[in-house]
Structures are given as structure tokens and as C-alpha cells.
Request: fold
Amino acid sequence: PVQHLSDRVLRRMNRRGGVEAVERAVRRLRQIPGMVIRTTFLTGFPGESEEDFLELCEGAKRLKFDRVGVFPYSREEGTPAYDFEEQIEEQIKQNRCDILMREQELRSEKAARKKIGEVVTVLCEGYDGAAETYYGRTYADAYEIDGKVYFTKRLGNKRLQPGSFVKVKILENMAYDLVGELVSAEEKNND
Reply:
């Protein structure tokens, strides 16, 4: 987890390397085909100024992380930051968190839109009887954290089994989820 993109805040967090090291690492990782880069950020760490928060927002926009989680800082007894002066008001921490998440949602939706028309491999995780749709995730989606791929099955009557890999053509997107139609399913060999 990167945690922040202001050198001043990173020093207060006792994080080594700074923003330049993060940017170098992201550039190197982007050279790997199919790489998905995820991170988490904290907003409202003690002493985080408005300028620090803007550096975080600008850095996140510049680095274009594929998946981002944002959490307001919460004081935990026994940690050095618990006793730091300049604690940030809860509402300010939450507002900053919301702003950063809205920015990420826009980036995620734009990336998801580019998937329309693609055929992706999906790990089938189950069936939602109420929605009459299967759901699963791609290699890029962390379990219970990221969005899902919802898809309908028009091939045969046999139910898909959780744990099977299927090919799904993406037909539409939501902010974090994709919607598609089954193209093919793996065949289980019972020999």
C-alpha cells in the first residue's frame, strides 16, 4: 500500500522511499503485460494539510492506479501517530476520502467502458437466483474487494459450477462491475 503521495506525510508515517520511489516502481510495473496495480490510501493522517491532500489527489490521477481503496485515518492506541498533534477532524477525513474515491470511481468507470466488446476469462463464483445471472471475477479483481463480472448463460441447460473458468463477452459496464454473456465454458474431464 502506497498510503499517501505527499513526501511530507510519508515522512510523518515513517514510510521510506517517498513519492519518487513509488513513481519509479509504478513505471517499472507498467512494463509488464497484463499487470494490474492496486493500492490503498489514507486521508486525514495527523498533520495532513490541504496542500498534502491535493498532492495525493494529483498523484493518484497521474499514476492511474487500476484499483484503489481509500480509508480515513483512524487513531489506534499503541501507535506513534496516536499521540501526534494536529489530529484531523473526522468530517474532514471523511470528506477527503469521499473526494478521492469519487475520482477513482470515474477512472474505474472509464477503464471498464473500454472492456465493452472484449472477451475475458472469468472465474465463476456462483449464481444469483433473484437476478438470474452468474457472477465471478477476472484475474484483475481481488476477492470480496473489487467489482464482479455478471453474466448470463445462453449455452445449454447445464448449470455452471463455482470454480470453473468461463469466457464472457462484455456487453456493458457499471462503475466497478462488468455485465456480459457467456461465450464458452471449460469442459470438465472426469477421466
